[in-house]
Amino acid sequence: MRVKGASGEEILRGLLAAEAVLERAGITASRQAAEGMFALEGWDISGFPDDGQPTEKEDKAAQIWMEAQLAALEACCAGWSAEKRPAAADLELPTDPEAQLADRAIALAKLRALTEAEDGNGEFMDSAAGTLAWSVAAALDEFLARDLVSDVTVAFTTLALAGFHPDEPIEPKRKAVLDAIEALEKAIEKPTAQ
Q1: How far is CA 183 from the centre of its chain?
Q2: Crossing angle of helices 128-137 and 142-160, rounded to 10°
Q3: Residue 115 contacts residue 177 (beta carbons within 8 Å)
Q4: Alpha carbon of 27 to those of 30, 92, 190: distances in Å?
Q5: Banded model confidence at residue 184, pLDDT cuts 50, 70, 90
Q6: Dihedral (C-alpha) 120, 121, 124, 130: value to the nearest 10 degrees?
Q7: Cα–Cα distance measured from residue 94 to residue 89, given in angstroms and rounded to the nearest whole number
Q8: How far apart are CA 73 and CA 77, in angstroms?
Q9: Rounded to whole angstroms, how far apart are CA atoms 111 and 121?
Q10: Around Cβ 130, how many Cβ atoms within 10 Å?
């Protein structure tokens, strides 16, 4: 769950409220609800064709997901002023819970360990660095977070794929990733970051 300016405690409160809605609806796997929402959004994006309409089960699951999102927003932002309160909560299923749900200190440590362990012989882009960077940047302004996470992922991808350029030294690429991680860490330490 992402809500700009929310503390970890507020996010947890929102997640618990969303989980309660899913449980009351009898959906034991929140994946069902998210897949229903995915079907509904896909139908919307396609222009609501007759042959692409979600099934009754998907439609019901999507409605439950929307109720869970609303409950998450209400619980997370309880007591917030109208100006600060966002219109919606970004609730999503974790694809990599260990990275996505890591607290800042753990995510930073994992980012640095991943960078130090990278040998540059990858053949494909690895999303782990980006996922961890987003965990670190969660409370930052959306645009600042996007820029800082982008800096980390671009630098990490350059390092991970360094084997495609064997004539270039790898250590400056590793340093570029560590510098991007440090910039991200400094941004979250500022009082305005939350």
Answers
A1: 19
A2: 150
A3: yes
A4: 6, 15, 40
A5: very high
A6: -30
A7: 15
A8: 6
A9: 18
A10: 19
CA distance 114 to 102: 14
Instruction: Residue 185: count other Cβ atoms within 10 Å of its Cβ.
Output: 17
Residue 82 is given by DSSP the state: T
Judged against a pLDDT cut of 70, whether residue 75 lies above it is answered with yes
- Here the tokens at position 27 are 């959906």
Contact 130, 152 (CB under 8 A): yes
CA-to-CA distance for 63 and 54, rounded, in angstroms?
12
pTM: 0.56
Going from the C-alpha of 64 to that of each of 10, 34, 58, 102, the distances in angstroms are 21, 9, 10, 27
- Rounded Cα distance between 158 and 122, Å, is 10
From CA 115, how far away is CA 184, in angstroms rounded?
15
Q: Return the percentage of the chain with pLDDT > 90, whole number.
A: 34
